[in-house]
Design brief:
Length: about 400
């Protein structure tokens, strides 16, 4: 269970209202009014309403929603570019809404950086000049800031381009510059507002992969905004789905896919590639026939007949997988007076319960036998059949697993 010490960012009942009659609008919203009705009655837009969630240190937290859901409005509240009408946003234990002008400036310079969808680069500076800009503003010496900037340029794969004008770069390369610039300040939190939405699909996939690599290397906390459910589930440790200014559900991609909070969430995630979200534990089943390594082939045949199958999984004393015995091999073992261990198949495909279904698709396609699911303790936890892998792509997961 996560402790409060792991929470770096917390939103508590955050609301952002636009318009003059905010008190009346807030009263109607508190009574359960929807955003459109409140807008018609008061002229006030409830851009975000009663948003609550926690971001754990070092995770990628994704906020997803359709256009107008309030996600971009909210992410700008996290650095006070938008100041909430009510509610509290805490960085560690500090209420950032109570920071004075200098403290807020320091917070934006040192603790939190933002990467924009349109890159936000300065055309009159080269790549190095753009990446080093934040350090220059902080008064870092030329030698030190260019050294740090070059480290970030190398990290995002742009070594050799440091003296090129940004106008000479492709969209994907410009976004790399934006990320390098944000990272150069060594912030604790990186805010990313649909940073890859303007990129073509192949470049976008590359940037997603690069971002995950950078996050694993540096351990930065990232709050990522997107409208793409596959992107959200690919990147997010936790995902928050927003609708009409409210957060509908916060969960891991796996749990959200398996247990959507309501029909809206279910429909929203319906287009997601389930094989890239759900893990093997959702589709594995208990093998119907298991025998111990020290038992004889006659007992194995009896167990196969009882279960109505033609093979048995062979396990050791601690349920560790030893192999698989077919009924033909068991019969042959009796004829030759040999043991189960002599006749069983030991080269079997295996995986772990937390492996994504998409990662076992190639194995399932080629395997002659079901894939054995092995836990961290080496014990046999279940099996995954080719049929269960294929059916997971079109049907609901088995929530009992």
């Amino acid at each position: 269970m996560e402790t409060k010490n792991n929470i770096i960012l917390r939103a508590e009942h955050v609301c952002k209202l636009y318009g003059a009659n905010k008190n009346e609008a807030a009263r109607l919203m508190e009574e359960g009014g929807d955003r459109n009705t409140v807008k018609q009655k008061t002229g006030v837009t409830a851009a975000i309403w009663d948003v609550n969630f926690e971001v754990q240190r070092g995770e990628i937290f994704v906020i997803i929603g359709l256009s107008g859901s309030g996600k971009s409005t909210f992410v700008r509240c996290l650095n006070m570019l938008n100041r909430p009408t009510s509610g509290t946003i805490r960085f560690e234990n500090s209420d950032i809404g109570k920071l004075n002008k200098k403290e807020l400036m320091d917070y934006r310079r040192d603790k939190i950086s933002m990467v924009f969808q349109n890159f936000g680069l300065m055309s009159h500076r080269d790549v190095l000049g753009n990446v080093a800009y934040g350090l220059e503003v902080k008064g870092i010496s030329t030698i030190e800031r260019e050294k740090k900037a070059m480290e970030m340029i190398d990290m995002v794969g742009l070594s050799g381009w440091e003296h090129q004008p940004v106008s000479a770069l492709s969209g994907g390369m410009r976004q790399r510059v934006g990320i390098a610039r944000a990272l150069a300040n060594d912030p604790e939190i990186l805010l990313m507002d649909e940073p890859f939405s303007a990129l073509d699909p192949l470049v976008r996939a590359d940037m997603q992969f690069e971002l995950m690599g950078i996050q694993r290397k540096l351990g930065k906390t990232i709050v990522f905004i997107t409208h793409d459910i596959n992107e959200a589930f690919k990147l997010g440790d936790h995902v928050a789905i927003m609708r009409d200014g409210r957060v509908i559900q916060v969960d891991t991609p796996e749990q959200m896919s398996a247990h959507p909070a309501d029909d809206y969430v279910r429909q929203f995630i319906g287009s997601a590639d389930r094989t890239k979200v759900l893990s093997v534990r959702h589709i594995m089943v208990t093998p119907s026939c298991v025998v111990r390594l020290g038992e004889g082939p006659n007992h194995a045949i009896h167990e196969m007949r009882r279960a109505g199958v033609s093979s048995a999984y062979v396990v050791g004393d601690k349920m560790n997988l030893a192999g698989l015995l077919t009924i033909d091999s068991a019969v042959e073992a009796i004829k030759q007076e040999r043991t189960i261990q002599d006749m069983m198949i030991t080269e079997l495909p295996t995986t772990s319960p937390d492996t994504l279904i998409g990662d076992v698709l190639p194995i399932a396609a080629e395997a002659k036998f079901p894939i054995s699911v092995i836990g961290e303790d080496g014990a046999l936890k279940g099996i995954v059949t080719k049929a269960s892998v294929l059916s997971s792509m079109v049907s609901s997961p088995n929530e009992e697993n």
